[in-house]
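Protein modeling request. Please complete all fields; requests missing the sequence field cannot be processed.
Requester role: graduate student
Desired output: 3D structure, token encoding
Chains: 1
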Amino acid sequence: MARKRAKAIPRTTGKGGNYRKTKAGAGMTRKGVRAYRKANPGSKLKTAVTGKVKKGSKAAKRRKSYCARSLGQLKRSSAKTRNNPNSRIRQARRRWKC
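Delivered output (98 residues):
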């Protein structure tokens, strides 16, 4: 009898992954965003706003909006996550410069 090959587990981080490792700032990679948009036509998902932005620009507004949303996530998370400087939500907020 022929044995079935086990399906490869889809990776979320590392080579071929769609998400950054926690130490790299968490969040989705460019490749991950492209894959998501391909799977969900009409999506407006974008990568993080990480550089300098002009006050009042679209990018600045996206950053401000993300920071407000993620602060709510941070407040609702467990004390262990909330107080850990290396948790995914804290790293992502640091990457977005919140």
